[in-house]
Design a protein that fits this description.
The protein has one domain: ACT domain (Alpha-Beta Plaits), CATH 3.30.70. The chain is built from 3 helices and 5 strands. The longest helix has 13 residues. It is elongated and about 65 Å long.
Length: 112
């Protein structure tokens, strides 16, 4: 709206003036948060990290905790460094396809 007002517009959210270039969502570069449920067993974390790395997605932070000791289930939360949307989604698809996780509970973009 500020750009609209500056261009002598009425303050509408519809832009007036030079066009803003949009980027296809696959080319978006941002950080990502993802939370997954996994079997609490050896190699789970490493295999997930390998798939992310193979797609060019670097981890900035990770936290893992046991959520059900009787069923040996855990939760892992990852925060990535900046990466492209298409690479991140492709990595998640492979992680699910290869059954490295029981479920992807949530993921979202983190924009600063």
């Amino acid at each position: 709206m500020g750009r609209n007002l500056n261009a002598q517009g009425r303050g509408s959210a519809i832009p007036i003036g030079p066009a803003i270039r949009t980027v296809p969502i696959d080319e978006l570069e941002t950080e990502y948060y993802v939370r997954v449920i996994v079997k609490d067993q050896p190699k789970v974390l490493g295999n997930i990290a390998l798939v992310l790395g193979d797609h060019g997605v670097s981890l900035a932070a990770m936290e893992m905790r046991v959520i059900d000791a009787a069923q040996t289930r855990g939760e892992i939360v990852f925060l990535t460094h900046t990466s492209r949307e298409d690479r991140f989604r492709s990595a998640l698809e492979q992680i699910v396809r290869e059954r490295l996780v029981e479920s992807v509970e949530a993921w979202f973009r983190v924009e600063a």
